[in-house]
TrEMBL record:
Keyword line: Phosphoprotein
UniProt-listed PANTHER family: STAGE 0 SPORULATION PROTEIN A HOMOLOG, TRANSCRIPTIONAL REGULATOR-RELATED
Lineage: Bacteria, Pseudomonadati, Deferribacterota, Deferribacteres, Deferribacterales
Residue ranges of domain Response regulatory in the record: 4-117
Domain HTH LytTR-type: 136-237
Keyword S-adenosyl-L-methionine: no
One Pfam family per UniProt: Response_reg
The organism of origin for this protein: Seleniivibrio woodruffii
Protein name: LytTR family two component transcriptional regulator
């Protein structure tokens, strides 16, 4: 049986070398590679790999923080890859399946693969410690923008993706609405909307038991009847 794997590392040579070593085993299909954490999250969401080989020391968002951006229901096994031995203890604290030091030695890789295969064959469900998000990674042209939660008025999803909205701008993020709800304090007010309670200026009730929440900047956020009472309770109304 062959397993689906992703390699996420900002160093192209490191990705190429690890791909070569893994493909030699005949056990893995390397379905994709990513050069940063945001691209890595996107690929995990779309490819649903069995395992990811994840570099720790990446720019903007490191490997540990990236784990907080993956939904629990699709979390793959994780093997951390690092050039720094001091990250080894942290990798075990995060309950990673294993870690590899760069440059990856073949015998060390083979021992790691044996452990991976045993876990996959047992069907064990991976579980990792993940911290709450304080910033939302958003994609711009050739840029990753980290938007502080304190700046976000609301987040919504539509056919084009998930959008984080501030008082003056709107950004696209690869995180799912479900994950953002679980990993932040943003409040679900509609099937497609999460709102920052601190940004609500007023609520206008509609005749059909729904409402509109107005932010301090004047943006309008729909509140469905299902969530109206919960929202009023959260605001102490």
């Amino acid at each position: 049986m062959r397993y689906k794997a992703l390699i996420i590392d900002d160093e192209p040579y490191a990705r190429e070398e690890l791909r070569f070593q893994l493909e030699k085993t005949g056990l893995f299909d390397i379905t994709a590679e990513a050069g940063n954490a945001v691209e890595g999250v996107r690929l995990v969401n779309s490819h649903r790999p069995d395992i990811i080989f994840l570099d720790i020391n990446m720019p903007v968002i490191n490997g540990f923080d990236m784990l907080s951006m993956i939904e629990k229901s699709i979390m793959p096994y994780v093997v951390f890859v690092t050039a720094y031995d001091q990250y080894a203890l942290k990798a075990f604290e995060e309950k990673a399946l294993d870690y590899l030091l760069k440059p990856v030695e073949q015998d060390r890789l083979e021992k790691t693969l044996e452990k991976i295969i045993r876990s996959l064959e047992k069907g064990e469900i991976p579980s990792y410690e993940r911290k709450d998000l304080t910033r939302i990674p958003c994609s711009l042209i050739n840029t990753i923008k980290l938007v502080d939660l304190s700046e976000i008025e609301y987040i919504y999803s539509d056919m084009t993706g998930v959008h984080a909205v501030t008082a003056g701008k709107e950004y696209l993020t690869d995180l799912t609405l479900k994950l953002i709800e679980c990993r932040t304090e943003l409040f679900r007010c509609h099937r497609q909307y999460l709102v920052n309670l601190a940004k609500i200026d007023r609520i206008v009730l509609n005749g059909n038991f729904s409402a509109d929440a107005y932010t301090a900047s004047g943006r309008v956020v729909p509140v469905s009847r299902r969530y109206l009472k919960l929202l009023k309770d959260a605001l102490g109304l």
